[in-house]
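Hi L.,

As promised, MOSC domain-containing protein:
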Amino acid sequence: MKRTVTAICTGTARPFNGAETSAIAKRPREGIVQILEDGFAPDEQADRRVHGGPEMAVHLYPLDHHAYWRERLGDLDLLDQPGAFGSNLAVRDVTESDVHIGDRFRLGEALLEISQPRQPCWKIEHRFGGQTNAKGIVADIIKTGRCGWYFRVLKIGDAQAGDALERIELGHKDWSVARTFNALIAGKASRDELEELAALPRLAPKLQDKAAAKLA
């Protein structure tokens, strides 16, 4: 699998909802961008308790999903932006069913590995709520599995828009991002699946722990 990165997007923490701040508004960068252990430099996360860090270093939300959201939300200018959902990487022709936990990708000089699906939060609804009635977006993401995913950075390096995102190693081929999301975030895992996820080597430790906790 080899796809072109349409845009690399980063953001800074800004006022978002009263006293809250967020860096969900990601804007395209020009030229070469560094990819470090915690992701693109610079790229902020307002609440480091639940966002960012090595296991959520780089976020990809498929551009192919924007067409679905246009039907759901209307023809919003926000959906013209490659980082509309807080995504760092804008890529077409790849979705959650096409990739797996532990898949490794070359991007420019960097090496990335898929660590986990993205779990949606209220900030997505608030981001779109200023332009339309966005109530229920989180529930819709959970229902449809249009979640996106995170990479960890195995090797730091430079990249830029126009570079290829090329899969060079298949990870846990039985665990697509779509199946993992359905099992752990949508809560539809069987006991056997939970046992497997709790011991899945390339799954983010936090989600391994979540699977183990469900077993208990």
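The longest strand covers residues 2-10.

Thanks again for sending the construct details.

K.
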